[in-house]
Here is the input.
Amino acid sequence: MPPHRLNRRSLVEKSLKGAAALPFWGLGNRLCATDGVTDSEFILGVSAAFRGPSRSLGIELYRGSQAYFRHVNQSGGINGRTVRLQCYDDGYQPVPSVLNTLKLIAEDDVFALFGYVGTPTVTRVLPLLKKFQDRNAYIFFPFTGAQPQRQPPYGDFAFNLRASYAQETAGLVHNFVRVGRSRVAVFYQADAYGRSGWAGVRDALAEHDKTIVGEATYKRGTRFTDSMRRQVEILKETNPDSVICTGSYAACAAFIRDSIDFGLEVPIANLSFVGSENLLKLLVDSTDNPERYTRLLVNSQVVPSYEDLSIPVIPEYRSRMTTVNTDLPSDLLDEPYTPLLYSFVSLEGYLNAKLMTEILTRMGDQPARERLEGAVFSVKDFDLGINELVSFSPRRRQGLQRIYYTMVDDRKFVTLRDWSERFAK
Amino acid sequence: MKIQRINRGTLFGIFALFLVMSLSTSALCIYTVDTHLSNEYRTNSGGIAKTIADASVDILLNRDLSTLQSFIDQFIDIQGVSYIYITDEHGGFVAHTFVPGIPPEIIKGARPDNASLDRNIAGMGDFFEVSRPILAGLAGSVHVGMDTGLIALKIQQAVGQQVYLISCIFLAGVVLATWLMYRSGRHLDSLLSYAQSLAMSTAMEPKVKLVADRNDEYGTLAHLFDYFSSKQEGALQEQEEPGADAHS
Here is the structure.
């Protein structure tokens, strides 16, 4: 736990804030805001991709969160306080993400950071949290499974809900090896996210005394219209019997398209971050025979399928996604966006918001940032409604551990139950 | 504008001089820029490699590879840095910046821990690669590739700028020299006309007469022509006068 130090600077800042607020006491709760919380609202800071090739991830995560937060707000809020998301676009780029975070912490004085998207962005933001540890700056439930926010020296400043990429890649590798596919190649984004997936595959293969047979990379920001032929050729030369992708939907869809077109017809797996629905939409919309491109697709997920209505939270999520206004502030969009009705990403956002609400509720009537960590650690065996209980402690800063595998059936991602039947060599 | 034949040699001399100047200064420029930039590149790439190597110890021993990748990605924005890769103690690649993949030349190439080498990578160009060991090589090594094509581009730019400047000076010099030659040629023409008029005892144009009023060599020559002409006339008269005396 980072020590809460009321140093001279923060003491002066708090005194000045208090002095400035005194003349306006009672004029409006917003004027009395300290530490990102007022008598009427919690302010959570978001920096995510709302523009650019990966914008669907940021938008859908936001929509899922808002589906729950707005429902809470409409029901009277958390101990009388509503939740407001202060959002900035970073385009899935590290430098804007750092600048946005600086603004959220130093200027907007948000209660906590919430719902960030991406490894290259979050990885660069983490040192800022250490810098602002005297303000108890924490990041909650970033949409990344990378290790830096799960281990020292920055692990103490982050709380994760989703399982890690290491767990996802390990699951994919073990299943591929189990069905006789141990010549695994890797296609990945040339940055921290891609490296995280690459390392996960390498470590998992090492458990089977195997190594990665081939690797190819692409630049972050690659679009579906870009060619991946060269990457396919590089991997084809190594004769893999399966490929694990660590990328975003546009680039991975382009890779899958070119793999099939240029004769690399092996199972291709994607991690949860890919944005499964957008990947599928690109493949389906670009061809008359989408089954040809999707029959060997397998995506790992960190939340269950939103098609499985037997899971308690799914009907609730589906209902709120259709009844609650989840529109993004128009100033964050640079071009029109057609939202997805349901998606794995928005479901994750929904679960993030549900757990955040529970944590804020546990802070009672006098919420303060210095008691935030304690409130998180008080969560024990909490039921989010996905048949997996969530617990936190100083040594357990990741809520969920389970990985789900999905395949495409009838142009939808459905739960993969039998690897042998689908992917046996 | 007519240039006298005696001045054409001078003009050719100016051309030749400028040509020698252009060639010699360009060669000097190429040598200087190439030497300085190459040295700077070698120093910088060595510095970058050492920085990464020093910082990578902690990351490799205590952190994960995504942190290492994030760390080296920040260096790739530096001008001239084309690629960075980090190998473990067994020579396996643990982080790199290559897209769409690690070139075969890099995979096959020898990678000494603390060395520099020039590389040509098919489809990418020529590079100067510096390597530095991590934890004395026990944890691997860092390799930084600098684009030598950028040095060639800088040389081209520097030489281009220099040639442009010399060309401007050369053109201005030619215009000035031509004008000066034309000016001095005009006086020579007047002096020539002056001399011809004296020789043929024809009437002189007023502007031709002006050459005798000059205080320079042209004026002096005009006076000398006058002097010789009057002496010639005097001698002719003396030759004619003895005959006249005989008749009288």
The helical segments of chain B are 5-62, 65-73, 104-108, 148-200, 206-209, 217-247. Chain B has a mean pLDDT of 84.
